[in-house]
Structures are given as C-alpha cells and as structure tokens.
Amino acid sequence: MKSNIPHFIPRICYEIFVRSFCDSNGDGIGDLNGITSRLDYLQDLGVEAIWLTPVHPSPTYHKYDVVDFYGIDPEYGTLDDFKNLLSEAHNRGIAVYLDLIVNHTSTLHPWFVEASKGPDNPYREFYWWMTPEKIAEMGIDKRETSADSNEVYPWHDNPGDSEQYYGLFYSGMPDLNYDSDKLRIELSYIIHFWLIDIGVDGFRLDAARHIYPTWVNYNNQHFWWFFDYFVRNIKPEAYTVGEIWATAEEVAPYFKNLNSAFHFDISFAIQRILLSETDENLVQKLLTNYELFARYNPDFIDATMLTNHDQDRIGSVVRNNPDKIKLAASILLTLPGQPYLYYGEELGMLGTKPDTYIREPFLWSSSPDDDSTTTWLQAEFSTKKNVLPLSVQQFDENSIFNHYKTLIKLRKSEPALGQVLHPNIETVDLNDQEILAYLRPHDKRPVLIIHNLCKLSKLIYLPIENHYFGQLLFSSNKANSKTDNGWLLASYSSVILIAD
Q1: Which of 388, 411, 435 is nearest to 281 (CA)?
Q2: At what angle do helices 220-234 and 181-192 cross, to 10 degrees?
Q3: Which positions of the chain have pLDDT values less than 70?
Q4: d(CA 166, CA 212)
C-alpha cells in the first residue's frame, strides 16, 4: 500500500482558469503576472494551494492540447513569470500545482507532426495508429459517450495515410501511447523539469482514467505505478491529484499510486441535495466510499468540490438563489476532505455549458476603469448585473464572499473541521430528510453541523447523545437561535455547534 504523504497538505485549494482570472498587461487575457498580483487576495481568503489550468503553448483558449510541455504560452507570460509566481506563492505559504496533461497532445506538437509523416517515423509509436479494417475487426470504431468526452467516433483520418489515429476527446487531441518506452522516458524528463528544475509542488493529472484506450485499459494502473515510482524517487513530498470522472468504485484503485482524486460522486450528490432539498443519506455514502478508498491507500486525500471548469457552476445549478449558494459552501466546507474552490465560486459566479460560459472573467471591481478583469470573452452569465463584484462583496458582511471567508477561517482554526487525512465524520440522525446533520469528532473539540435543506424554518431536537452540543460556533443566518428544547433554523441555513 502507498505510504508517501506530501510534506504539506493544504486544507483549502483553489482552481484558477488562468485565461479568466486576472489580466496584468491590458490585453484582455488573464496571465501569470495577474495571478501573482492577486496572491495577497488568495492568502487573505485562506487559500493554501492553487491549481493552475494548463499554461503551456497551445492553439486553443483552454490549452489542454499542448504543443510544448516545457514552455509557457506567450499569452500567459514567460517561464521567468512562472518562476516568480511560484516564488511569491511560496513566500505566502501557498503551494502551486501544475495541470499536467499526460493523456494526449495537440496535433501541432512536434511529436505528432513527425508521427503523422508515416509508419516508419520514429515518433509513430508515441500515438495509437490502426487501419480502418483492424478498427472494424476489433469493434472499436465507436464508443459510448461519457461524462468527460462526447466523442463517439474516436478514430481520425491523417490525410494520405492508410492508418487512422486515436483521439478520445477530439481530432485535435491525439492520445499518447505509453506502450512506447521512448515516450515514457520523455515523460520522465517533463516530470523532472517541473518538479526539480522549476520547483512546482505537484500535479493535477488530467483524464487519469483514459491513459490507455478502453480495449487495453487494464494497463492504466501500471502506468500510474510507473508515474508514481518516478515522482517519489525524485521528489517524495510532491502532491498528485487525479481527475477520474467516474464512480467511487472506479476511482478507488487510483489511490494506490496517487495521493488524491476528485470526488465526483459527492460533487453531484451535493448538487442533487440542493435541488431536491432532501438528504440522500450523504454521510453514509461518504463512509462507504472512505472505506473503499482506504483499502488501496489508508492515507488517501479526498479532493472535494462543488463544481469545476467542466461542470455548470454551482450558482447556476441552484438557479442563483443566494441562500442555496451559501448552503452549498456550508456543506462543502464542513465535510471532511480537501476542498477545491473553483475561481469565482466565492462570489457566486454563474455559468452553464457550453464550456466557455463556465469559464467567464472573474469580477474584480464594479469600476468602469477596472483593468484587471479579463475581456477575452463577453460574459453571458457572470455579468455585473447578475453577480456583485469582489470590490462590493468585500464590504458586505452578509455577502457570499464573506460567507466563504468566514467558513474557510473556521475550517482552518478548528482541528475537527480541518482534518484531511483519515476523514472524521459520524452520522447524526434527526429523523428528517430535509435536514443534513453530522458530527466531526475530535478528542478535544468535536463539532456538530446541521443544515436545513428546505425553504421552511425547522425546529431541531438533538438526540440525547448529542445534547451537550449547546454552544453556537457559527450560524449562516442571524435568525437561527437556541430554544428551550432545541435549535430553530431558518430556511437554507446552517449552524455549527460545540459542547457547552
């Protein structure tokens, strides 16, 4: 079983879609220096690690189709800008995780440019090639769409070539073939460059379940063994978090070789709970999943989130209901795990697919002279009419921003809430499906959390074994109060209780 634990385990992480976060040079595009200029903001919010979406040269706005794994896209800055960002983040106690795309490249990558020249090219083995006849014979010409790819026909033509290449996500992203020892060596150079030469703290690993195509996907785990073996030999304390967009049963084996994995099951469960306004027996689901994860790695790190750059924003999921937006934050930030906030979530930013509209500019200021808000995309959802900018929310004690900031501070100050390894949670049964309650045990200072999921006020009576939780530590609504027999909770509100 895996035993390597990162030397620093952040309690609050923050995903930055680089192009949309902050513009430093007036070209309308978010960049590395823009992020550096806002590190004080992130530190003040309570963030301890940032995950940067891809920064490498790429022909697309999202940059998940890499042309050069060693470079920085000129739109975002230079390698020196990246080094400066890294240094300034570390000065503030903030770790930096690089989005590493190991599943595919761009068709413009020099490897593919060479591979596409013909079967005899030495780079041909870096990708998957097959004749249409062989593809048909194996029955792999079509695939079922999945949550992370809508591509039905993953084999693509290379003009003048008798073979097609495999690209799971689309024709511009040909999949890499790690049966090639030469490719594995190239990957090891890339890992060493970013971990040692540059000094990043770890990687967010894109499309981790798709390293090998479906007909040979039994090789996935061996690949991640190789990847982890190399990482641990050059930087044992490095952090790795995988994107495995699948059920907990499929995610669990990846903990053998990765420190962490995103918990998509719980992301979607929280969204459903907010819409149905009923508990889905969430705590028991978590306990079941934790038991499963621990079989593969007792020191697993559960990376939780409400949504990310591939999902409709939580603000739109709950139809821009500010109380439900706060409730979502209250649930995420009081559950176990290592929460990731998607940039702008702390403002209640909105957005639904297509993808560009869940990646709209961060709203820094209401001033017309604001030059840090990016302009590369005309926002349709997170406009200043629909979402209050940070400059406004910072001075409103009841804002979504200050709700997040208060909860983050509480999570970092309360040991029971901030525990990441060996998640601590117990069920509290209040016999009401419209109430979500749980205990975060701790040997010195346990806390009890209660969420009212519905639109009506609720009078809560604690079980006998929990009667000693009589002191209010946090309330999301001033109307919440203690009564003679229990607690009165306003609609869509939360309380955190400690012992008298």
Answers
A1: 435
A2: 40
A3: 1-3
A4: 11
Q: Would you state the structure tokens that stand for residue 123, as one six-digit string?
A: 């780079």
181's enclosing H/E stretch is helix 181-192
Give the pLDDT score at 7: 78
Residues 6 or more apart from 319 whose CB is under 8 A from it?
none
Tell me the C-alpha distance between 123 and 325, whole Å.
49
Name residue, tokens 């910072």. 394
169-211 confidence digits (pLDDT tens):
999 999 999 999 999 999 999 999 999 999 999 999 999 999 9
Mark out the alpha helices in 277-356 (DSSP H runs).
282-296, 314-317, 322-332
Q: What are phi and psi of 194, to 5 degrees?
A: -80, -35
Whether the Cβ atoms of residue 306 and residue 340 lie closer than 8 Å to each other: no
Rounded to whole angstroms, the Cα distance separating 302 from 241 reads 9
CA distance 164 to 180: 18
In a 13 Å sphere around the CA of 444, the CA atoms on its Cβ side amount to 2
- Supply the angle between the helices 322-332 and 400-413 in degrees, to the nearest 10: 10
Answering whether pTM is above 0.90, one says: yes
Which stretch of DSSP H or E encloses residue 91? helix 79-91
**Residue 368 pLDDT:** 85
Grouping H, G, I as helix, E, B as strand and the rest as coil, residue 20 is: helix
| Residue 473 phi, psi (nearest 5) | -95, -35
Question: The tokens of 317 are what?
Answer: 């999921």
Supply 18's token pair: 């680089």
Give the catalytic positions in this structure. Answer: 206, 243
Domain ranges of the chain: 13-103+181-415, 110-166, 425-498
CATH of range 425-498; options 3.40.440.10, 2.60.40.1180, 1.10.10.10, 3.40.640.10: 2.60.40.1180
Pairing mode, strands 426-427 and 481-482: unpaired
- Residue 377 contacts residue 361 (beta carbons within 8 Å): yes
118/126 Cα distance (integer angstroms): 12
Task: Name the residue type at position 272.
Answer: R
CA–CA distance, 29 with 18 (Å, rounded to integer)? 9
Q: List 341's β-bridge partners, or say none.
A: 14
pLDDT at 24: 97
Paired tokens of 63: 């940059």
**Class of CATH domain 110-166:** alpha beta
Please name the residue that has the structure tokens 């530190």.
43
Q: What homologous superfamily is domain 13-103+181-415 in, according to CATH?
A: Glycosidases (3.20.20.80)
First-to-last alpha carbon distance for the chain, in angstroms, is 41
How far apart are the C-alpha atoms of 343 and 241, rounded to whole Å? 18
Distances (CA, A) of 478 to 330, 378, 472, 493: 15, 37, 11, 10
Question: Quick check: 295 and 331 in contact, CB under 8 A?
Answer: no
Contacts of 354 by beta carbon, 8 Å cutoff, 6+ apart: none
